[in-house]
Amino acid sequence: MRTRAWYSRLAKIAAKTSGRPATFVLALSVLIVWAVTGPLFGFSDTWQLVINTGTTIVTFLMVFLIQNTQNRDTEAIHIKLDELIRATQGAHNALLDLEELEERTLDEFRARYIALAQAARARRAQGDFDTDTPEA
Predict the structure, then answer these.
(1) In the chain, what are the domain boundaries?
(2) What is the pLDDT of residues 77-89, one digit of tens each?
(3) Phi, psi (5° rounding) for residue 98?
């Protein structure tokens, strides 16, 4: 658990830091310095390898940090949505934790809600309201 907490803290800090304007300016500065030093090193293979290696390493690590941040944010959104469903009178508790269901079951739920949306649009086109609970 300590490893996860350590990684989670690192991922949060890295995500916040990498998204700041100062970090962008730093990265841009590194690229400018690299480009300016090109003539000094005769645009050699080593000169090119430095930037290629650096950007590859940064990109590789950022993929994992971004995925961690995205997973955490998605999980929080799912929990919040589950709580809204659970706390809303008339809501279907069967919709809780949908992200864990098989694709076929999700397709069945989706088809049901597509049909409800189509019926509501048809009623609305006739001047009716679409803010009811169809099952009531």
Answers:
(1) 2-94, 101-136
(2) 999 999 999 998 8
(3) -60, -30
